[in-house]
Specification:
- The chain has 124 residues and is mainly beta.
- It has two helices and eight strands; from the N terminus they run E-E-H-E-E-E-E-E-E-H.
- Helices cover 11% and strands 36% of the residues.
Length: 124
Amino acid sequence: MVKLDFEKTGGLIPAIAQDYQTGEVLMLAYMNEQSFEETLKSGKATYYSRSKQSLWKKGETSGHMQDVKEIRVDCDRDTILLKVDQIGGAACHKGYKSCFFSCITNDEIMVTDPIVFDPKEVYK
């Protein structure tokens, strides 16, 4: 069994999802031991929702699941990097490929990426 340091950060560790082909960072979420074990078992990214206080299998509602191709762990074993195949082309619940769809330019936040789907249609 893989042993990660969930205790250091109060039971949750950051999990970065990265497109396994392009290297683009898609999102940052959190995992607890149970969501990590479910990810290992299923091969589908499963996170812990801090707002809902429950496990969250990515794409359960939208269909935009993440097939895990590789899991990397940092040197302190308290951060995970998931290299994923992003099904449906969008990781962000706001309809963008990546949650990092904006840039700061001239002291303003500017949306720089195209929207992939309409969240109002997907999350009715």
